[in-house]
Amino acid sequence: MNTTQLIQQILKKKSFLCIGLDTDLDKIPAFLLAKEDPIFEFNKAIIDATHHLAVAYKPNTAFYEAYGLKGWQALEKTINYLNTNYPEIFTIADAKRGDIGNTSSRYAKAFFEDLAFDSVTVAPYMGKDSVEPFLAFQDKFTIMLALTSNQGAFDFQTQLIKNEELYKQVLKTSLTWENSAQLMYVVGATKAAYFKEVRSIVPDSFLLVPGVGAQGGSLAEVCKYGMNTKVGLLVNSARGIIYAATDTNFAFAAADKARELQLEMQKILTEHKFI
Ligand SMILES: O=c1ccn([C@@H]2O[C@H](COP(=O)(O)O)[C@@H](O)[C@H]2O)c(=O)[nH]1
Q1: Could you give the number of structural domains in the chain?
Q2: Which residues have CB under 6 Å of ligand 1?
């Protein structure tokens, strides 16, 4: 998928919602635990109930890796289900990888070729040669952590190094890398005050914005300075949507929560004259 197709989806669905599939066996409805693959059954029901309201899904791989082989198989079934049944959906493996070059290229192969995700999240701490192997894959996106939603973001990311915040240097430097047009960036919704600065450095890039819902970030605040001329935002919510209910109606309850965010997004897209 390319960004033109992604933008078309956003305008068609009047939504820039990304649903986080952070599927936790301790939180899903108990009746699903009797199934052969409860994680996949849960994801399938959530996807079927919400696909018309969302343009992207983001399984966080930690929630699958935690269950070993069965978890990884559930992840594989989930991405295959999305790619087969909803090929218009943008998929994100939230894996936060990054290592020396030859190892990064194996990570990239795992997520882009074997699992066929459209994108993967990457931690930039190891620098250019740890990120460029991901960028070498055509028509795939590397979503680099820029300014994360957690409190610990202030430990390093906002610290001044040679008079400039580290996250700004990360953004600026990444633009000099080969195939930088295939970069997107993670900026937390809880860091709304920083969006103006972020946009001044990466005006054209898509931002993946986690932190609305359970972490308390505000969609309206994010959109004030986070949008660009082509929308440029994918706003993620996981717990706030997928665990809306724990009875047999869980997927409908999730769809209700997704609809609430989609309607807010529709209003914002209208106000910004995108639709
Ligand atoms: O800065 C970041 C980067 C990644 N995440 C991930 O996004 C989701 C958020 O889930 P919620 O339940 O909507 O809070 C989760 O997978 C995080 O690991 C983030 O929150 N912040």
Answers
A1: 1
A2: 20, 22, 60, 94, 148-150, 186, 188, 210-211, 213-215, 236-240
